[in-house]
Amino acid sequence: MSSNRRIVQGTGLFYLVFGIIALITAAVMFFGAPLAESSMEDGTEIAMMFGIILAIIGLFMVVAGIIGLRAAKHDNLLKPFIYISAFIVVLNLGEIGLTFTSGEGGSIYMNLIYAVFSFVAIVAASRVLNGDK
């Protein structure tokens, strides 16, 4: 297995692990939502909503991880992996832009790490797709 294929496989594993962590966190947020009622108004609904959003993100990351792990060995999955990674780059850069323009949002460092990591995955998968077997 070439180094570029190992990068694709490592990125798939990264996506898979963080997707599973996101799903676990989403379950805790969703089922622990009644505990948030005492600390803020409409806390239960807000916690449940963010739990559902995080579950969707986690599911997407798990699917991206599985495709990445399989794309390391099957060339026909490299293009979908490139598209998913490009989508992750766009989402994270958009979040960074929103944070800068509105002043609201989370830390830009995690989004920047995801964007750079996904961009490296795009480059490695493109090299594999263009003939680096």
Radius of gyration, taken over Cα atoms and rounded to an integer in Å: 17 Å
Number of helices: 4
Helix content: over 70%
**Low-confidence runs of at least 5 consecutive residues:** none
Strand proportion, as a percent range, falls in: under 5%
End-to-end gap: 8 Å
Mean pLDDT: 87
Q: Give the SSE order as H and E letters.
A: HHHH
Biggest beta sheet attributes = none
Q: What structural category characterises the helix and strand content?
A: mainly alpha
Outline: elongated
Number of E strands: 0
Describe this protein's structure.
The protein is mostly helical and 133 residues long. Helices cover 79% and strands 0% of the residues. The chain contains four helices and no strands. The chain is elongated, with a radius of gyration of 17 Å. The N and C termini lie close together (8 Å).
Could you provide a short overview of the structure?
With 133 residues, the chain is mostly helical.
Please give the structural blueprint:
Layout: H1 3-31, H2 43-71, H3 78-102, H4 108-129
Helix pairs in contact: 1-2, 1-4, 2-3, 3-4
Which properties best describe this structure?
133 residues, mainly alpha, elongated
